Amino acid sequence: MSERPPIITVRGLSNSFGDQIIHQDLDLDVRPGEILGVVGGSGTGKSVLMRSIIGLQRPSAGEIEVLGENMINRSEDEAKNIRRRWGILFQNGALFSTLTVAENVEVPIHEYFPHLKPPLLDEIASYKIAMSGLSPDAGPKFPSELSGGMRKRAGLARALALDPELLFLDEPTAGLDPIGAATFDELIRSLQQRLELTVFLITHDLDTLHTICDRVAVLADQKVVAVGTIAELLSLDHPWIQEYFNGPRGRAAADSYKEVAEA
Amino acid sequence: MAVKDKPAAGYRGTGEGPGDLFCVSGSLTITRAASTARELDSLADPLTIDLSKVEKMDTVGAWIIYRTVRDRGAKVIGASEEEQSLLAQVADADKPAKVRPDVRGGLYRTLNELGLWMSELGQTLVGLIGFFGATLVGFANLVRRPKRFRLNAVVQRFDLVGVRALGIIGLMTFLIGIVVAQQGAVQLEQFGAEIYTVNLIGRISVRELATLMTAIMVAGRSGSAFAAQIGTMKITEEIDAMRTIGVSPIEALVIPRLLATTIMMPLLAFFAMIMSLLGGGIFVWLVLNIPPLTYVQLLQDVVPITDLWIGLIKAPVFGFIIGLAGCFQGMLVQGNSEEVGLRTTNAVVQSIFLVIVLDAVFAVFFSSIGWK
Fold it and tell me: Could you tell me which residues of chain B have a Cβ less than 8 Å from any Cβ in chain A?
């Protein structure tokens, strides 16, 4: 795996809002074909890191490369070419509320390929919706008519609209019940394997970390303090990491994962 | 370093047996989706598709191939393992999902919309009366237990609704005074009756315009704000939280706002009258050479005191209506943030409409009791 260059490279990233420093000299690599989980306490700037990588937040210093292209100071036209190669699922779905689910999925396709005929567009939207695990009657519904879990799936369908190589997920299982969260984890895993995606996943969900993440990056003290598998992280002596994975919740998640793995 | 998609050049050939052979080379992705679909459509059945020269395929490409196989019984040859798995995946996801909502034809839809509109109108009216009742109960409770009265909230609303509106209302009515004077002067000049411009300014400002324009401005400024504030509080479940703690939202939110608009409206209307008369006065002084002192004397002669009463009696009623509509629409918000915008618009439209209807009723009423 090491011979292939990383999909995302972040070097020396710094972000601050006024006096408040969010990141300082942060480095991170995301390897092709992996699911990288990003964890950190509230306010450690997980979302800010994602927003910097996808270009919604201008960092105060640092280099960011995505899919081999430098992301800082790109013109809007150049950035568009990179944008069609990734998909993003925002925390609450960020679906366009005035469009139906199917129309939401069609927005990115229509934006980049306006010459596609409506019947083909509808067919594409329809199989993307099915791929995301939504029921067939979800297509003509509006986001306000969907439950939280369905909204996330619809957001995922939109993120997958352009067959991206890279998928950003911001707390995909937050606010879902444990069963819904587990099925969503499975869905992400199976999509990632079948479509050969690289996934950048922000989460607080310890179960998600155990079941689907290949590696986990820990954000603390304004930088990425460690990246590795959970076993590697556990051998480190960082107080936050120890408390996170060895706290009561961390242990419960690890135990249940072990049980599943053994069964 | 992005891999440029090479065109998927399909060419016809004759395969073994009858029918066309479609050989795809290069990349079979969304970039070439439209042209590939078109080329496939132009070929005759039975079709054989050769994928052996495909370098890159995505789900859209796979879907187009899959669809041809499904609908036309085409045969696929030369697919690699990866391509086969991709084809299997899209086949897996082929569930006839509905994409568009059902649309019924013209007459049905028109009747449906008319019915919905009528029932909504009825519900709004009933709801508004119900809400009016609830506020009266709230007032009654406050009178019985005056300690629950929220003086701070009320004073804060006075500031927002009244004091902060002075600038814009003053400027607006000042300009309206000038416009009325100018238009009046042009028309009356034709009869050599410019002096009656003062009658026009005085009576129309005091009796009608100042109060009406103030009401419209307060509806736009404060009525909309009420609806948006209360609506947002409903979405964030603050109102539910209040109820569970035992605080009545009517007492805590609605009554201070209603008091503010009801009490501030006559004060603002009086201020608006003065500003309008001032605007008109400056115009007649500069253009018609009527000095300020004469202007004031003329006003005293031609504007009966009942005009002032009419203007000031209407004002609190308008204020109450504006506050009521704003709070009512805010309370109706449920669901999403789009609803807040919708309800805010409704609050403004409804309150201005009601104000103008009531203004007409007042006009007839005051004329018939002899205040002409």
Answer: 1-2, 29-31, 33-34, 37, 58-60, 63-64, 67, 85-86, 89-90, 92-102, 335-338
Strand partners, A65: A9, A70
**3-state SS class at B334:** coil
- The fold adopted by the segment(s) B11-92 is Transcription Regulator spoIIAA (3.30.750)
CB A132 within 8 A of CB A138: no
ipTM field: 0.72
Which of B41, B58, B60, B100 is the mutation pick for testing A, counting most A CBs within 10 A? B60
Q: Which of B229, B255, B226, B252 is nearest to B327 (CA)?
A: B226
Alpha-carbon torsion, ordered B117, B120, B121, B124, to 10 deg: -160
How do the pLDDT tens digits run along chain B, 372 residues long?
333 344 444 555 544 555 678 888 888 888 888 888 888 888 877 788 888 888 888 888 888 888 888 888 888 888 888 888 888 888 888 877 677 777 777 888 889 899 999 998 899 889 999 999 999 999 998 899 888 888 888 999 999 999 999 999 999 999 999 999 999 999 999 998 888 999 999 999 999 999 999 999 999 999 999 999 999 998 888 888 888 887 888 988 999 999 999 999 999 999 999 999 999 999 999 999 999 999 999 999 999 999 999 999 999 999 999 999 999 999 998 877 788 999 999 999 999 999 999 999 999 999 999 888
Give me the residue spans of the domains in chain B.
11-92, 134-368
Cβ-Cβ contacts under 8 Å, B60 against chain A: 124, 163
Whether residue A126 and residue B97 make contact (CB cut-off 8 A), yes or no, is yes
